[in-house]
Design brief:
Blueprint: H1 3-9, H2 19-24, H3 36-39, E1 44-49, H4 67-75, E2 80-86, E3 92-101, E4 104-109, E5 115-120, H5 134-146, H6 149-157, E6 166-170, E7 173-177, H7 185-188, H8 199-203, H9 214-217, E8 227-233, E9 237-242, E10 256-260, H10 265-273, E11 279-281, H11 285-291, E12 298-303, E13 309-313, E14 318-319, E15 322-323, H12 329-338, H13 341-347, E16 354-355, H14 378-386, E17 394-401, H15 405-420, E18 424-431, H16 433-442, E19 447-450, H17 459-466, H18 482-492, H19 501-515, E20 518-523, E21 525-530, E22 534-535, E23 538-539, E24 551-552
Parallel strand pairs: 1-10, 1-11, 3-23, 17-18
Antiparallel strand pairs: 2-3, 4-5, 5-7, 6-7, 8-9, 9-10, 11-21, 12-21, 13-19, 13-20, 14-15, 16-20, 22-24
Length: 553
């Protein structure tokens, strides 16, 4: 498909799409006489979002996608949450320096700094009425580190690795023992992964083949958070109902949330403009650019902290039993010089993101994300490729998530066209959103578009996931280098300004530019467009909505 044709067709939407039609497409539909927005129903919130639709209710399950984080955030509690801060533009963001109570009403650090003891709320219950106890917390933490994959990596990022670290003192007292002093441990307890599940409920569905009950939790609510699951029809609709007995925070103003699966950005925009929905979340850059000028809507846009959209190049010498061109650093560097950065920035991102290229002559510092020194230079690209074993070019593939096609597809088409100048033939692989996390985990693609954002806002945390030889899910290049690991581990064990931290960060960023296993393109922005009566929106590091904060005026 020609690029110009793509850009025309990507803005088209189905005429006549309405909320009622969407609801009728679901089994057991709700068919209101008017949409919640039109009827003035101030305790029902109707939402569409970009980035795909939640594919699971189990955040610990392998392959669970990012949209599912927001649902888990609402239906499960964690021990702690984060406070808020007001940004210069007047909008509200989470504050990772301010830990606040959630299921734990208080906590106390040991005098030697090597453990923390939590006092749980004694009136908290799960959605089925069972009391929440320290045994549930222990079992849930054991599950997070025992399931493997992303949850285990995430817990490990905060030095939460062994079941022996998690101790039940009594029904309402829970202790976490620290393996070592670590700046990430406490804040890692407040991210989405360490959710508290109803252990006795899940245990009823455990089998020898499924010791953590993942198959059942995948489609069922085992939580005690602010919302319960009313309906879950993957690929169609998800309905959340307020849990009236929630004790871990102020009861939400919104009694019911209806999340609809509307894949096309043009359709999501049409529903918003007709007043059929309240919130269009994770809005495309094109629509963000245009809707900022429409006074009747509230549009907010935030650069995503610690996030990079990149082209990851599988760096192993062989792939699938065959020689892999991207195992050659000269090939990776050549690709980095061939990428048409400015055209991608303007065409795929409508100049709404933060460019991460062209830092020529600028010294590497300790900020992250920061721009790489690479710019578009086809002469350099050809010269570098000529120094490799693939001077005559080769054939390869480039995979991307269809849930991100509004920016990922034009990006890939531009890269495809640019690499043709090096006699590199690229076939695009369009991966359905429900499968993309699994594809990323497989590490079988030579090139893949990655959009990783680190939850804990430190550069060493990002690199722990994206560059460390442990080969976590988001290391899309499967990059392994002991020298890189040593730099990252030095930084993880220290703090900014102390213990060699700053030098270690500069060293691992410098090495990343030399080795180039992933090519940074932009730091993305997260945009939300809302009807004017929507209040309480808050930016979160996990890039999902927190329905608990939202209200209708």
């Amino acid at each position: 498909m020609k690029r110009r044709t793509l850009l025309k067709t990507s803005t088209a939407f189905t005429l006549g799409l309405s909320l009622t039609a969407l609801l009728k497409s679901c089994a057991n539909p709700v068919e209101p006489e008017a949409s919640p927005t039109e009827s003035g129903n101030n305790d029902v919130l109707t939402v569409v979002q970009g980035g795909g639709f939640p594919n699971s209710l189990d955040l610990h399950r392998a392959g669970t996608n990012r949209p599912a984080y927001g649902i888990s955030w609402s239906i499960y509690d964690r021990l702690m949450t984060f406070g808020t801060k007001t940004l210069p533009d007047g909008s509200v963001s989470y504050d990772y320096t301010d830990l606040q109570p959630e299921l734990a009403e208080s906590w106390e650090l040991a005098p030697d700094g090597m453990s923390v003891t939590f006092a749980l709320r004694q009136n908290a219950t799960f959605h089925d009425g069972a009391p929440v106890t320290a045994k549930d917390v222990k079992w849930s933490f054991d599950r997070a580190i025992g399931m493997g994959g992303f949850p285990t990596f995430q817990m490990k990022a905060g030095a939460l690795e062994n079941p022996e670290q998690f101790v039940v003192i009594d029904d309402y007292t829970f202790q976490v023992k620290f393996l070592r002093p670590d700046k990430l441990t406490m804040i890692d307890l407040a991210v989405p992964i360490p959710i508290i599940l109803n252990s006795e409920l899940v245990k009823q569905h455990i089998t020898d083949a499924d010791p953590w009950g993942a198959e059942w939790v995948n489609n069922n609510d085992a939580g005690g958070g602010a919302y319960t699951v009313g309906e879950f029809e993957p690929g169609k609709k998800l309905v959340l109902k307020r849990f009236e007995d929630w004790q871990s925070g102020p009861l939400p103003a919104i009694a019911e949330v209806i999340l609809l699966d509307v894949p096309e950005p043009g359709n999501r925009r049409a529903l918003l403009e007709r007043g059929d929905i309240d919130i269009n979340f994770d809005v495309s850059d094109k629509d963000t650019q245009e809707l900022k000028a429409v006074a009747e809507f509230t549009t907010l846009s935030h650069p995503v902290e610690n996030a990079v959209y990149s082209i990851d190049l599988h760096s192993n010498p062989t792939l699938g039993g065959k020689p892999n061109p991207f195992g050659d650093v000269k090939v990776r560097q050549a690709i980095a010089y061939a990428v048409p950065y400015e055209e991608i920035f303007k065409t795929a991102f409508y100049s709404q993101a933060v460019p991460l290229y062209g830092a020529t002559g600028k010294a590497v510092d300790t900020t992250w994300p920061q721009a790489s020194p690479y710019t578009t230079d086809l002469d350099k690209a050809k010269a570098l490729l000529a120094e490799s074993e693939y001077a005559d070019g080769f054939t390869t593939t480039l995979a991307f998530d269809l849930g991100n096609k509004e920016w990922a597809e034009p990006l890939c088409i531009l890269v495809q066209e640019a690499l043709a100048n090096l006699n590199i033939t690229v076939t695009l692989e369009k991966v359905p959103t429900a499968n993309f996390r699994s594809v990323l985990t497989e590490k079988t693609r030579p090139m893949i578009i990655n959009n990783f954002g680190g939850w804990l806002n430190f550069p060493d945390y990002f690199f722990f996931y994206a560059y460390h030889g442990q080969d976590a899910t988001f290391n899309g290049s499967s990059y392994k280098n002991p020298q890189m690991d040593a730099f990252i581990e030095t930084a993880l064990k220290s703090e900014p300004g102390k213990g060699g931290y700053d030098k270690a960060v500069q060293d691992f960023i410098t090495l990343a530019w030399e080795e180039m296993p992933r090519i940074p393109i932009v730091q993305p922005s997260l945009s939300v467009v809302m009807q004017p009566n929507i209040e309480g929106y808050q930016y979160w590091f996990h890039r999902q909505l927190d329905f608990r904060q939202i209200r209708k005026a």
